[in-house]
Amino acid sequence: MADAMLLARQAASMRPVSAPYPPKTAALGGVPSINPDVPICAVFLVLYIIAACSHMTILQINQHRKHKFIMSGMMFGYCMSRIVTMIMRIVWATRPMNVRIAIAANIFVFAGVVLLFVVNLLFAQRIVRACHPHSGWHPFFHWIFVAIYAWIPVTLVMLLISVIQSFYTLNANTKRIDRDIQLYGQTAYAFISFLPIPMIILGLLVPRKTRVEKFGHGRFRTKIYALTTTTILLCLGACFRLGTNFAGGERPRTDPASYQSKAYFYVFNFVVELVVIYLYLVLRVDKRFFIPTGSHQAGDYLRRDDYYTRKARGEVTDPNAEAKVSPGDMILSEEEVFDDLSRDELERMTSSQDVEKGYEADEAKVPSDAAQRALDSGTATVMSRSLVAIPPVAHTPNERIAEMRATEEEGQ
User: Fold this and answer.
1) Which whole-number Å values give the CA distances from 202 to 79, 125, 147, 195, 235, in the listed order?
2) Is the bond preceding residue 20 a cis peptide, omega within 30 degrees?
């Protein structure tokens, strides 16, 4: 009898007397502890600080060059949100019974990745507009994206309200509604994270009426590979979070499922996002996905608005700017410009360019009327014959060199 009274007294002392209340259901990652969560969060914290400094450095350098690329700022903002997430999780590990810290930590886990979804959508939008300039810049397509961009913050606000409210109520029906809202929000974000893939597929498979309007630096196919890879990674994380909430969201806190462990939490939340953010950094998406400032219609992507073009127009006034430019800033090769053409089209275009260059190079050697009459009468010297020779329709560089050598041998 005494033992029963003692247990009842302990249970009453552990029961929260006021809101916020600790959750009764299991969640992905559970409640953090000093070991192993603090060392893991410290490593992630350092990695996110490095990524934040790198993206901010790129943003500042580009702003100095008048190279507008707001996505670098968005990636910096994402890194900063994850830095706060790691700090809050470390604090929560040292104070596991503080429910208010738990609320703040969960809010930042939900909020950070949204910025990466928006970045990928912006990249996908540029791919579609490059492949199909007229339909990509159509007002209907524009307003669809405006609706998606408005839908994202509205869903985020709903998610945050439902998470906070679930800690401040004991009503079963209210908790059920909060869970439904969270499931809706995670489903919406899984869909948004996947959206760039069908956009890329449609952009590539739908027959084009015009040539691809290349933008930025680097090969167009590399842009597609990079965007597809990051989209798959972000979608993988979003779908895993959604699946665990559907399958184990109502399990008791004392009996979490194996897929709700800390390892899965860190891998599918932060590891995949770190891979994406560092992939953006290594691939220099600020160059590859750059478009001319003020682009708003078909054909605007063809304008060159990079550093070297502005310098040629006399718009670069910083005398030290040249030293700050790496070789990767240079305009890239002909293959990167024409890599959407077939082999036959590329050969025909190259052949026509060689003919034009041949005539331009030999234009000064075309004989005058008097020189032509001298040639016809045989009075011109051998040297003059070589000088006034009319350039043939040639054509590859090797053939052109061989013909020049043959001309010199005839002169000797």
Assistant:
1) 31, 12, 20, 11, 18
2) yes
d(Cα 282, Cα 276) in Å, to the nearest integer?
10
Distance of CA 332 to the CA centre of its chain: 20
Residue 11 Cα to chain centre, angstroms: 52
Q: 251-255 contacts: CB < 8 A, separation 24 or more?
A: 251/25, 251/26, 252/24, 252/25, 252/26, 253/23, 253/24, 253/25, 253/26, 255/26
Residues 402 and 106: their CA atoms lie apart, in Å, by 73
- Name the residue type at position 238: A
Of 256, 203, 258, 207, the C-alpha closest to 26 is 256
Q: What is the DSSP letter of 65?
A: T
Whether 29 and 93 have beta carbons less than 8 Å apart is answered as: no
- Confirm if 365 and 388 have CB atoms less than 8 A apart: yes
pLDDT tens digits, 127-176:
998 888 888 888 898 899 999 999 999 999 999 999 999 899 888 899 99
Rounded Cα distance between 329 and 250, Å, is: 53
Looking up tokens 């990524």, which residue turns up? 51
The β-bridge partners of 252 are 25
Q: CA-to-CA distance for 346 and 350, rounded, in angstroms? A: 6
* Packing angle, helices 70-94 and 114-131, rounded to 10: 160
What pLDDT is attached to residue 344?
A: 47
Q: What is the pLDDT of residues 329-386, one digit of tens each?
A: 433 444 444 445 444 444 555 555 554 445 444 444 445 555 555 445 554 444 343 3
For the chain, give percent helix, strand, coil, nearest 5. Answer: 70, 0, 30
Digit-coded pLDDT (tens) for 95-120:
988 999 999 998 998 888 999 999 99
Cβ partners under 8 Å of residue 15, min gap 6: none
- Looking up tokens 């979804």, which residue turns up? 117
* DSSP 3-state of 372: helix
- pLDDT reported for residue 143: 92
Pick from 148, 158, 65: nearest CA to 111: 158
Q: How is residue 300 annotated by DSSP?
A: G
What would the two tokens of residue 29 be? Answer: 């990652």
Query: Using alpha carbons only, what angle is made at residue 44 by residues 39 and 49, rounded to the nearest 5 degrees?
Result: 125
